Automatic annotation (TrEMBL):
One of its GO terms (molecular function) is 5'-nucleotidase activity. Pfam families: HAD_2. The keyword Ion transport does not apply. Keywords: Hydrolase. SUPFAM superfamilies: HAD-like (SSF56784). Transmembrane segments: none annotated. CDD domains: HAD_Neu5Ac-Pase_like. NCBIfam families: HAD-SF-IA-v1, YjjG_YfnB. InterPro entries: HAD-like_sf, HAD-SF_hydro_IA, HAD-SF_hydro_IA_YjjG/PynA, HAD_2, HAD_sf, PGP-like_dom2, Pyrimidine_5'-ntase_YjjG. The lineage of its organism: Bacteria, Bacillati, Bacillota, Bacilli, Bacillales. This is HAD-superfamily hydrolase, subfamily IA, variant 1. It comes from Exiguobacterium sibiricum (strain DSM 17290 / CCUG 55495 / CIP 109462 / JCM 13490 / 255-15).
């Protein structure tokens, strides 16, 4: 199939969210005079991940995610905090995170002239847009769709309906989504009736019910998959 429209997730696909999150948490813990440890970071990530997964399943709202995650985490540390204020500070630190996944810029350089490129991301709009701008990724995209602004989130079919209603001359049978999340990106693509490409750098196994159309382990493999001219690597970031 000749694809014309590429939908990119950003966190863990083009931007290194783990590095960004770690830096933001370290700063937040320092503000709260709470010692950073790998165990505390891992516990926060577990709480946060479970809440976002509940959001993807439609069980809670985005507001519940951002107001309850720090309340829950700090309660386990024996502290009472204002979840909304804590999240505002965390988001400010998170917005500064612009570290790229290896090969992201080179990949987009090779695709920009041939395809329509769009961002499809779950998250808070101000944070995601700031990170896209700060990382230098924003100019590569013809449009940016953030769940907070659409009123829906991946993998909801309504999110993708919103996206397709706003992309000119788009065809679903010529569209592919590229992302790292089986439950948000791959399931969302399946429900939307489009091709899916799972970015799977850890070589994890996909369950049969969420089998992607394609799987890549490095970003430059997408170029081969699409039949585009080979990426010229200029960095090893």
């Amino acid at each position: 199939m000749n694809y014309t429209t590429l939908l990119f997730d950003i966190d863990h696909t083009l931007l290194d969210f783990d590095a960004t999150e770690r830096a933001a948490l370290r700063q937040l813990f320092e503000d709260e005079q709470l010692e950073w440890t790998e165990e505390r970071e891992a516990r926060y990530r577990t709480i946060n991940r479970s809440l976002w997964q509940a959001l993807e399943r439609g069980e809670i709202t985005r507001q519940e995610v951002i107001t309850s995650r720090f309340v829950t985490f700090f309660a386990e540390q024996g502290r009472t905090v204002d979840g909304s204020r804590m999240d505002t500070r965390y988001r400010a630190y998170l917005s500064q995170g612009t570290e790229l996944i290896a090969g992201a810029i080179e990949l987009l350089d090779s695709l920009k002239e041939k395809y329509q490129l769009y961002v499809v991301t779950n998250g808070v709009a101000a944070t995601q847009r700031a990170r896209l701008k700060g990382s230098g990724l924003a100019p590569y995209f013809d449009g940016i769709f953030v769940s907070e602004e659409t009123g829906y989130q991946k993998p909801m079919p309504a999110f993708f309906d919103y996206v397709f209603d706003r992309i000119p001359n788009v065809r679903r049978d010529q569209t592919i989504i590229i992302g790292d999340s089986l439950t948000a990106d791959i399931q969302g693509g399946i429900l939307a009736g489009i091709a899916t490409c799972w970015f799977n750098p850890t070589h994890a196994a996909a369950p049969a019910e969420l089998m992607p159309t394609y799987t890549i382990n490095q970003l430059n493999q997408l170029v081969t998959l699409l039949g585009t001219k080979e990426v010229v690597w200029t960095t090893s970031k």
